[in-house]
């Protein structure tokens, strides 16, 4: 098993402008136990749909931007990693997941295209995940929550996913979903989403704004499948994408706060390391 590019135990690394093709099923780019890196403008392709694209293990403070991952296994994968920003990546035709986050914390996934994968995005045992303004279409399942809590899903477009656009398992809770567009997902079913968790909210109470559902008829709530008996209290008549620009400043504030947390954690970590070195 070979990996195209392997990086371990590094800091402030730039990985850019690489083409990783059919690396014997292991992965295009693999990073382990590293800090403060940028992975940008890479292409990972696998004709056999087994190679993973970009994998992170036990890493912190990454920006992963403008990469194209197609026809592999996992597109973008992170395990036991935190403070990662995924933006403007394309994950198409992967046999497993477009984006897969496992044991993740404080991760931002925004403005990516996750289409024609088995699952567009899968979150496992993770917390504080921000998913904003992504295109998630023509997958078997759009977005899966498994043991995932305290995450925010806004201004995404879910279109023509074969099964549910979003599905939450019984251990996922306290997630907020609003200002999303749901068009023609799970056409053979009764709802475009399924919630088996608890305390998940499918609208923003302060603005009395929910999501747009293409199959919503008439007035009143939009009911979500699943044991939690959730509903969208304020379903929209039109796609919220039309007014996304008006809320871009709100997301900018969220992103600045997110990056400030990254910088603060880095400063604290290095200050502690310096003290250890001085008194060793």
Please provide a brief summary of the model.
This protein has 280 residues and is mainly beta.
Describe the structure.
There is one protein chain. The chain has 280 residues and is mostly beta strands. It contains one helix and 28 strands. Strands 1-4-7-10-13-16-19-22-25 form a nine-stranded parallel beta sheet, with no helix packed on it. The protein has a nine-stranded parallel beta sheet with strand order 3-6-9-12-15-18-21-24-26, with no helix packed on it. An eight-stranded parallel beta sheet has the order 2-5-8-11-14-17-20-23, with helices on one face. A hairpin with a 7-residue loop joins strand 27 and strand 28 (231-232). Mean pLDDT is 88; it is low at 272-280.
Number of helices: 1
Q: Note the overall shape.
A: globular
The helix content, as a percent range, equals 10-25%
Could you list the spans in which at least 5 consecutive residues all have pLDDT below 50?
Answer: 272-280
What average pLDDT do the residues reach?
88
**Total beta strands:** 28
The termini sit apart by 40 Å
Describe the sheet with the most strands: 9 strands, parallel
Order of strands, main sheet, comes to: 1-4-7-10-13-16-19-22-25
Order of helices and strands: EEEEEEEEEEEEEEEEEEEEEEEEEEEEH
Alpha-carbon Rg, integer: 19 Å
- Residues in β-strands, percent: 35-45%
Short key terms for the protein model shown above:
nine-stranded parallel β-sheet; disordered C terminus
Secondary structure layout plus pairing:
Elements: E1 3-8, E2 14-16, E3 19-21, E4 27-32, E5 35-40, E6 43-45, E7 52-57, E8 60-65, E9 68-70, E10 76-79, E11 82-87, E12 90-92, E13 97-102, E14 105-110, E15 113-115, E16 119-124, E17 127-132, E18 135-137, E19 141-146, E20 152-154, E21 157-159, E22 166-168, E23 176-178, E24 181-183, E25 193-195, E26 212-213, E27 222-223, E28 231-232, H1 248-278
């Amino acid at each position: 098993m070979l990996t195209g590019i392997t990086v371990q135990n590094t800091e402030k690394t730039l990985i850019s402008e690489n083409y990783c093709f059919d690396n014997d099923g292991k992965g295009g780019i693999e990073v382990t136990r590293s800090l403060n890196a940028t992975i940008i403008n890479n292409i990972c392709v696998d004709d056999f749909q087994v190679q993973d694209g970009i994998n992170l293990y036990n890493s912190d403070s990454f920006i992963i931007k403008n990469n194209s991952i197609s026809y592999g296994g996992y597109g973008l994968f992170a395990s036991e990693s935190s403070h990662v920003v995924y933006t403007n990546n394309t994950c198409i035709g992967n046999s497993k997941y477009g984006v897969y986050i496992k044991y993740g914390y404080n991760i931002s996934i925004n403005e990516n295209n996750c289409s024609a994968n088995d699952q567009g995005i899968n979150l496992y045992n993770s917390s504080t995940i921000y998913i904003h303004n992504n295109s998630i279409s023509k997958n078997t399942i759009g977005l899966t929550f498994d043991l995932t809590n305290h995450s925010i899903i806004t201004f995404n477009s879910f279109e023509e996913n074969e099964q549910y656009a979003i599905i939450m398992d019984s251990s996922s809770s306290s997630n907020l979903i609003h200002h999303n567009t749901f068009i023609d997902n799970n056409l053979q079913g009764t709802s475009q989403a399924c919630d088996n968790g608890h305390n998940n909210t499918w609208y923003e109470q302060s603005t009395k704004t929910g999501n747009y559902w293409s199959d919503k008829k008439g007035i009143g709530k939009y009911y979500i499948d699943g044991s939690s008996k959730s509903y969208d209290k304020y379903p929209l008549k039109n796609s919220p994408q039309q007014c996304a620009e008006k809320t871009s400043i709100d997301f900018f504030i969220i992103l600045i706060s997110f990056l400030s947390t990254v910088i603060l954690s880095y400063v604290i970590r290095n200050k502690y390391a310096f003290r250890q070195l001085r008194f060793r």
